[in-house]
Amino acid sequence: MAIALCASCKSRVEEGAVRCVNCNADLALPGTFTQVLGWVIVAISTIPFAVSEVTTAERDWTPLVLGGLIAAFGFVMVLSGRARNKAATNPVIIEASPTTSQSQ
Length: 104
Known about the structure:
By secondary structure, the chain is mainly α. The protein has one domain (2-96). The protein contains 3 helices and 2 strands. The chain has a two-stranded antiparallel sheet with strand order 1-2. Helix 1 packs antiparallel against helix 3 (62-87) and helix 2 (46-55) runs antiparallel to helix 3. The chain is rod-shaped, with a radius of gyration of 22 Å.
């Protein structure tokens, strides 16, 4: 079992915590919100794709192009959020707990 420690004050924090209880440091990675927002935008881009199903028979390609642009923008946001996560220093230090080996 691994132990999670706050990088600033070295106190023990729960796994998945957003703030350190001891020093109130922010433990969330900086690009997480950008990734979530990007996936929401990708999900919203399905609306113009659904409209384009009806309008492509009439040779109106505007909803299809608009949906593609919105989806591309969402994917760019997801990729930029992942890049920010990888570039940031981790606010939580994971220490491996000492394992006890039993010899017989």
